[in-house]
Design brief:
This protein has 235 residues and is α+β, with helices and mostly antiparallel strands. The protein has five helices and nine strands.
Length: 235
């Protein structure tokens, strides 16, 4: 198996797993269906194309910088009748950074890697109004598992965020697609079956929450312990 590693960073991101009708919410981390949609677009696949090979990929994501929840209102009018449509609420994550990875057969992973470097359709972070602010692809690994790649990747948070942390290491949340050996896990309706706009379909998939520890490149040494009586001792 091979692993394709990506970074998902941008001013706004929106990863809906249960968003319906006039209330379009977002999960706290990228969804598998959203990332598979990004990869399918990079390959140039239409919305009605077969997703079987992409849906079979194992998916995981690491939370490098939690976003700030943002709510927006949108109004629209019917294209033909001009009638006002219901006001809709849209939720986003502002200034978030994630490391995502998919694991699968080497040939498919290599094709996805090349597609991200020269995408047919431009990538977006969950919604078309959310373009990435950095290159998406971070490379391919043929000698590591998905879990090992998420643990080995450098911390991708913004420099200002890294500078606020003094400690030499940081603990990051990891959300990985569960396998049969993980025991009881959470479930999310996020396994894409079809992106056909006439009948989009998703199945449940298991997810496992974990943590990894990575170095902080902006770590600063802690100040020496303050002793207000040191001057009295001539120190």
């Amino acid at each position: 198996m091979s692993v394709l590693v990506m970074q998902l960073a941008g001013p706004l991101q929106a990863w809906g797993a249960s968003a319906r009708f006039a209330r379009r919410t977002t999960e706290q981390a990228p969804t598998k269906s959203g990332v598979i949609g990004l990869l399918a677009a990079a390959l140039g696949r239409g919305r009605t194309a077969d997703l079987t090979d992409l849906a079979a990929l194992r998916f995981g994501v690491r939370v490098d910088q939690r976003g700030i929840p943002v709510r927006d209102y949108q109004v629209a009018h019917h294209f033909e009748t001009g009638k006002a449509m219901p006001v809709s609420e849209r939720f986003y994550l502002a200034d978030a950074v994630f490391v995502a990875a998919v694991e699968g057969e080497e040939d498919l992973i290599n094709r996805l890697h090349q597609a991200l470097r020269s995408p047919v359709f431009l990538p977006y972070l969950g919604r078309r109004s959310c373009p990435p602010s950095r290159p998406v692809e971070l490379g391919v690994h043929h000698d590591r598992s998905l879990d090992e790649c998420l643990a080995a990747e450098p911390w991708r948070a913004s420099p200002w965020r890294q500078g606020r942390v003094r400690e030499p290491e940081v603990q990051l949340e990891v959300i990985v697609q569960a396998n049969g050996d993980d025991g009881p896990v959470d479930t999310l309706r996020d396994q894409p079956l079809s992106f056909d706009p006439r009948h989009r379909r998703y199945a449940l998939r298991g997810i496992r929450h974990d943590h990894v520890v990575v170095p902080n490149p902006a770590a600063r040494p802690l100040p020496a312990e303050h002793d207000p009586t040191a001057v009295l001792r001539g120190q």
